[in-house]
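Record type: ASSEMBLY
Status: queued
Input:
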Amino acid sequence: MVRSQAAAPLIDRMMTPADYSLSRPCPLGRISRFDYETTVAIVGFGAAGACAAIAAADAGARVMLFEAGSHSGGSIALEGGGGEIYLGGGGGSPQQRHAGFEDRTEDFHRYLLMAGGPDADEAKVRLYAGNALAHFDWLIAQGVEYTDAYVADHGLMPLNEECLGWTGSEEAWPFVQAARPAPRGHKPRHGGWNSGKYLMDVLTRQVHARGVDVRFGARALALIVDEDQRVHGLVVQADGKPCFVRASNGVILCTGGFIRNREMVQHHAPRLLRANRPIGALDDGSGIRLGMSVGASAIGMSEGFVTLPWYPPESLVRGILVNERGQRFINEDCYHGRVAQFILDQLGDRVWLLQDVETYAPGLLHESAGIGIAATCDSWEEVERKLDLPGGTLVATIDIYNRHAARGLDPLFHKTGRWLKPLDKPPFTVLDCSVDRAQYSAFTLGGLATLASGEVLTEDHEVIAGLFAAGRATCGLPRWGKGYSSGMSIADCTFFGRQAGQRAAT
Amino acid sequence: MVRSQAAAPLIDRMMTPADYSLSRPCPLGRISRFDYETTVAIVGFGAAGACAAIAAADAGARVMLFEAGSHSGGSIALEGGGGEIYLGGGGGSPQQRHAGFEDRTEDFHRYLLMAGGPDADEAKVRLYAGNALAHFDWLIAQGVEYTDAYVADHGLMPLNEECLGWTGSEEAWPFVQAARPAPRGHKPRHGGWNSGKYLMDVLTRQVHARGVDVRFGARALALIVDEDQRVHGLVVQADGKPCFVRASNGVILCTGGFIRNREMVQHHAPRLLRANRPIGALDDGSGIRLGMSVGASAIGMSEGFVTLPWYPPESLVRGILVNERGQRFINEDCYHGRVAQFILDQLGDRVWLLQDVETYAPGLLHESAGIGIAATCDSWEEVERKLDLPGGTLVATIDIYNRHAARGLDPLFHKTGRWLKPLDKPPFTVLDCSVDRAQYSAFTLGGLATLASGEVLTEDHEVIAGLFAAGRATCGLPRWGKGYSSGMSIADCTFFGRQAGQRAAT
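Status: finished
Output:
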């Protein structure tokens, strides 16, 4: 298989890792001997890598899995990682049906498509919408436990042993017009706030149980390609030395996004620089850079998930958000991630959440998110003055809002009736959600262009032989910050990780 | 130079152009014989390609220039292409000084940096700010003629033989706070509205005068690379057949942006899909795709220039723009390109320009831009009803605007005093600038990452040997839609085209 090339020098085995670059593939013809031979090589032991490994092993492949860190995990296992997966369709999961929701595949499909934004991937949406329940069964078969309990409150996610909750904008305009709403966030029974870690531990055990050859502390250095740009393996750093790995069927990149790579964020998604709390384990874009080095297309690179936990409790949703011109800018009953995108779109950093005495309650996560009380006043005129808003602006905004809310209407932003009430009972509480003060969390949504099978594409939509990717190293199911719903990334990582593993194995 | 590779088949000379792909480089080792040998090969005969060719030839290189079309031109020569170049600094061009503006390099530099947005290229800004006047002299030396006449009116650009005009947001907030304003758009004497074509004709003559070997109808098919990803030349389609071109010093990609490639726009800049009038000759992203095929990084891909000629006449700037919630959203004295970006950011498509009898005048380009009169009313209450705006919204907006404008203030958006007056003299005219009705023009600003020298970079900032790029195939001086000023793209194409030509030649 290794071509002899008289004129090309073979690679000096004493080369150091520093001689490699993620952006420069290593020519196959230069390699005289491989250190490892496997069928499938996977880079990154997060949720996508784990599911790819399980699926590839189950399809009969020899699998090696390389992880730069000292243990499995990835972003899913970070502190506070809820571990909920976004799923439904097929008439509903047992939890959805138990809670009285018949979730038709058609509605689930429509919601996912709308949530994907102007460049939604119809093929991935269709495959997932039709197979999400089977995928849920697969997760349960791996040993992930779920209860039947449903939480009707709009929170960030279920917090204890409950499973099912609202984690998107399903009931909010404009989504509610496109698809019949249903709660679709399914959180594992164990782990509470850190159930992502629990989910990952279950998957990790399954990887090991299948005899996958896992190497920790093994950083990818470069892809190995032939002159037709077919990928034959990769160079990894092990024990401080470059090792050559041949993967006869291909390499699967499961390395996460690039939120930890400030330069990449600046070049591709500078808007996310306004969010000051990156969510990501080792998300330095390494897999995306490896893919680009062999001509892969990276798409949707400017998009990201951004959020601020300004609710729960859900009573806060009955308040309104205004910018530094005293203007509202979004229906506040949208998912917090969508709301945060609109906050970032505002000209100027100042944004406030306004409450009256009937809607105000201390925010569950306000302290850790840096959301403080900016003022407590007896009239909106006083609030307007205290916030130094242009004269008359806030008072006009409140007047218009209250007048329509009294009739259960929001003709400006279409907030639904359930969340509308005039904000007219003093004292009024002003919460400071300013972009330069509160903690906005973010991760990236752009990445390698792939088929639903995980095969990586060039800009001209040609498959790069021997290269696969899954999870946030790709532009997947979630790819539009204004449509993101909690659990979509885990759905994407686990489901499309499996597709990539299976395809690479066969 | 051509390596013999026993195992690799040589390319069948009878292969058809369809066997190639811009996304797949052609291995050097497969080519048995080159059809052409040159020092520098340039792809694309627009402004960037012309300047690169002139500079490379002047530096003593043999130059071949390949153009897919049947004549030179590119986007600069399109109908309505004003041909103005954005320049200043050094105390001012003769035209600036003649009009009484001392334009310090420091101010020019600051404006360019701010206009570049959150990922401005400091190295390119510095180089251009310090050398723009010398570059202007170079253009004049090529035979481009300019008058001394200055147009003080804020229009789109000077229209007749005048040279100097305001083509940016120099006097508007927030730019005016960062840099002392000066008009910096310099339009050639000839050609009127189509002076871009005139400028291109002058440059074309200079290219031919230098004996550059120009091939028309010659479409690039693929780059030729060795296994170290060094670029050695390219495959072009000539007379329906692939031809192999060796360029000993390198290939310069001057192929323009990708606004004519709908799929690329959707994957990288879906926001621009809202603009329905693409500005671009053959801008199909071919050069960007060629660069990506050898591991080049493409950055800022979501950004574009968007505009709607809602002024001139400049009296219209004294009106206000509102969205479908009756809210203002921008200081209307900004450059039309910046204003259009904020229009696209609005939730919903409806946007109106509101005038009173003292500010209204028929728009010079309203008819061709699809801006129609939506209503003429005697009161703002009537306008609010006719536009079906939520009750009280527009009236409150007007009330706040007029109250502050009477005192020469705009505390909401910081429109400058010169453009402020209460809109209180009926009849009131409403002009429909809705995104789905008016004609929004757009071109892309993202492209290959390059050094100021034109050398193309990988995602890890390594130079790809033998590959250069300039103009809209790169992410250059202009890279932020909200900062774009007319003439910046021509500045970038001509100045950095020269840098690339010179570097490739030496």
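Annotation: Chain B touches chain A through 64 residues (CB under 8 Å).
Annotation: The CA atoms of residues 259 and 265 of chain B lie 6 Å apart.
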